[in-house]
Every structure is written in C-alpha cells, then in structure tokens.
Amino acid sequence: TSLDGQVSSSTLELTLNPADEGRRLTCRAENQDLPATTKEETHILQVLYPPEVQVSAGSSLDLNNIKEGDDVYFDCHVKARPEAHRIIWRFNGSELRPNSSAGVMVVGESLVLQKVSRGRAGRYSCEAINTQGKNSSHPIILTIKFSPVCRVEQTDVYGVGRNEKTTVTCRVEADPPVNSYRWAFNNTGEFVDIPPAAYDIKEDKMLGQRSDLRYS
C-alpha cells in the first residue's frame, strides 16, 4: 500500500492456477472516518494456461475384450484457456492422421478406429495445443485379441535325409497365447495325428511362442 497526497493505492500479487478460473477478486476501499463512502470493485479472474489433457476409451467399450474386426474409439478431454486450437492423436508416439481407407477417423475430439486388426494394438495418446503451450495425455493401451496365425519368419520346407533326425518348428502369433498344438502328417488328404510326446511348446523372448517337433 502506498500513499501519495490524497491518493492511495494497494497492489496485490497472486500466483494463479487453473482452479482459480472464474473466481471473483474484490478490492474494497474503506475510510473509518467516513464509513458511508466505502468503494469496491470486483473482477472475474480469467487464467491463461496450457492444455490439461486426458484420454479415455469410449464408454461402451471393454478394453479387456477387444477383438479383430471390432470398432474402437477414444475421447480426448481437454481443459485449456484459451481453447486448444489443435489436437493431435498419436499411436506409439507417432502422429496418427485421419485415413478413411485405413479405417482411421477423427470426429471432433474423438478418434475412431474401424474394424481394427492386430496391427492397431499399442499406445494411444492425444496432444492439445493453445497459445500458452502444449501437453500430451498419458497413453492408453489397446490390446486386440486374435486367432493364431503363423509367423512369416519360419522355414516352410525341410530337407531331411533317410534316417536323419531333425526338428521342425511352428511359430505362431496369438492373443491370448496358444495353450495347445496339434501336429499331424498330411498324406494325400488324410491327417495322421502325431503323439504329443514328440513335440513340446516353448516361449521365445524374441520370436514369441513356438512348438518344436522332433522328427526322425
């Protein structure tokens, strides 16, 4: 507070945060000798701040039971002043652009993934930008259940000599993981099952699950 002749002034320094948005700040001047001359002025606080961002799955989705072919959508929730002028969706850290032919659409602040394949599994986040800065949400993890498929990086043809022993490997991808394998000989359209004692199931940290058949 300072006094200058007949003029007095008071300065208030505040550190504001987004929770102060819309609060009323009142300055009241009083003179005990002249109580009827009290004056006051009120201001509504407008706090400028960078976006606060959260991402959530659509309310009707069960993220624990998404299968190939399902439609998935995420909502980006943004709180900012001024309003965010741009929202960016990211998949595994890279910008995800709308692509209707690939089933990727952005509708308002929502991301829509149509008929998802297992390749869409991963981390999704949204980023919002305004004049005060930019921020990203914590990622949300999408897992997609799918039937077993053979991995491409495996041997299809084995050359084996008479009375020679070898190991034939079958590598697959699946979610949830495969819990059983069936091996069989295919001779002129007839399947002859191989006893389970001849093969086993192993976990490979680099290449995933596999079954090895010992053949002789």
TrEMBL record:
<dbReference type="InterPro" id="IPR007110">
    <property type="entry name" value="Ig-like_dom"/>
</dbReference>
<dbReference type="InterPro" id="IPR003599">
    <property type="entry name" value="Ig_sub"/>
</dbReference>
<dbReference type="InterPro" id="IPR003598">
    <property type="entry name" value="Ig_sub2"/>
</dbReference>
<dbReference type="InterPro" id="IPR013783">
    <property type="entry name" value="Ig-like_fold"/>
</dbReference>
<protein>
    <recommendedName>
        <fullName>Ig-like domain-containing protein</fullName>
    </recommendedName>
</protein>
<dbReference type="Pfam" id="PF13927">
    <property type="entry name" value="Ig_3"/>
</dbReference>
<feature type="domain" description="Ig-like">
    <location>
        <begin position="51"/>
        <end position="143"/>
    </location>
</feature>
<dbReference type="InterPro" id="IPR036179">
    <property type="entry name" value="Ig-like_dom_sf"/>
</dbReference>
